[in-house]
Amino acid sequence: MTTEPKSKAWWQSLPVIMTSLAGIITASTGLVVALQQSGAFNLFAQASSEEAIAASDPTLIQAPLWGNLCMDVANEQGEAPPVVMWECHNRGNQRFVYDEAAQSISLPKWGNRCLSIDTSASGSYSGAPIVAAQNCTGESHQKFAIAPDGTIRASEFEGLCLDISGEYQPAVAGAPVIAWECHGGENQRWFIENLI
To answer: Which of 61, 85, 124, 160 sits CB 3.0–4.6 Å from 71 for a disulfide?
Structure first.
């Protein structure tokens, strides 16, 4: 006489199912941790960010078409050190705050300094250097608007934009930032984290 094998009840398979689920959860958690440590989630967050930076969050102003160059306040002290292009290093003299309401671009590293068109030269301000003025006064030469096309326009001087001096094309470290007639060329296009 042959005996047929008894079929197991479903509850007898439950330990095997639970062990398998625990293994899947552990593997998934390990994958998420590895992706987080590699920075993969930061890439997705940066790409999907649509909010403007907070007024207190300093940011880099980059020239994306010229490689790894950022707007930089020369490490000179004095009333108005020049603004130049320099290799991006993310230190205080490259971290700016754009205040849309005040139309100002300030430099928190040195307290109350704002980007300013150097108005010491008489006549046209086209070609005038951009400096980090000692005081943010809100005067016309310190007012800038960031346009959707990536240009930074002098709000009170119609037709002037921040420009990497044409004498340095392609741009190199040390090239001065000046005010120049807006033409939308590569040397007038900027990238500001989370804004443009």
So the answer is: 61
Tell me the H-state helices in the chain: 14-38, 40-48
Q: Residues 164-191: what's their mean pLDDT?
A: 88
Which structural domain, as residue segments, surrounds residue 26? 10-48
**171 contacts 66 by C-beta, under 8 angstroms:** yes
- Is 164 domain-assigned? yes
Q: Which residues contact 62 (CB under 8 A, 6 or more apart)?
A: 69, 70, 71, 88, 190, 191, 192
pLDDT tens-digit series, residues 64-94: 877 889 999 987 667 889 999 999 998 889 9
pTM of the model: 0.68
CATH code (residue 146): 2.80.10.50
What total of structural domains would you count in the chain?
2
Q: In whole angstroms, how far apart are CA 168 and each of 3, 35, 108, 177?
A: 93, 41, 28, 10
